[in-house]
Amino acid sequence: MSSAERSLETERLVLRRRREEATAxxxxxxxxxxxxxxxxxxxxxxxxxFDHLISLAFPGNLxxxxxxxxxxxxxxxxxxxxxxxxxxxxxxxxxxxxxx
Length: 100
Known about the structure:
alpha+beta
């Protein structure tokens, strides 16, 4: 294959490559959105008629606590699991929920 054949790009091929790159970027953005809890929070309140959302995390799980704070939750109590381990309970009330 000659170098001219390898470098041949039509407008359609260029657009297809850009669409694939954009689709991959959108997938990464959606994954990050869900990873950070916003998607779950919004889906929960949009889908169900509950008045609050709770989340449990072990005290040492700092990343989970940071995500809960970012999505608007606040720590309300400690709970003891049947195993004897303590977890922190965080809560977000529907009245405090706002969509971005």
